[in-house]
Amino acid sequence: MPLSALKSHFGASGELLHRLANGIDDRHVELPSAAKSISRETTFGKDTQDRSLLKATLRYLSERVGSELRQRGKPARCITLKLRYADFTTITRSHTLRQASNTDQAIFDTGLKLLRRALSQEKQPVRLIGIGVSNLVEPGKQLDMLDTSAQRQEQLNRAIDRIRKKYGFTAIQTGQTLLLKDIFPTNKEGYTLQTPSLSR
Prior knowledge:
The protein has helices at about 5-10, 10-20, 50-70, 105-120, 150-165; strands at about 35-50, 75-85, 90-100, 125-135, 185, 190, 195-200. A hairpin with a 4-residue loop joins strand 2 and strand 3. Helix content is about 40%, strand content about 25%.
């Protein structure tokens, strides 16, 4: 498209568009920065108020986020739930953990509390659900001598990660996500959500 046409439609930014489209760019090339957050979300084919489906989907997304956190070797301090309703109103609700974590259970439990609170305040169907983590920190934390449940959860997640790496993500599932396999299409690697997305 001629430069004059771009300028008449887009003003000053038309010239920039023309330069970039023609490979003219004086900016320095920079390496991508490390991710500051990780999230997964999916849009349902049909708006839903089915709490079992919302809970199962939230669990699946939490496991995906937890898996990526562990691959990066980082725990997170902040958990964020995202919901989009039938009228396209979108909300986010966040909670900061006392101690950073990368376990599926911590992400899901926090997300579920936020989900229950949000659903009690809004009665319309949900179009999109997502869960994310931010405030990623370096690994290392104070061990609790009296409560070993967090350590057991981390060991369990590492074992599940190894199985999923070898046999596919849906090779091992929690009971909470089992109903998803009857809803979403399956292939040789198991079911996949219809419109999953990953954002950072």
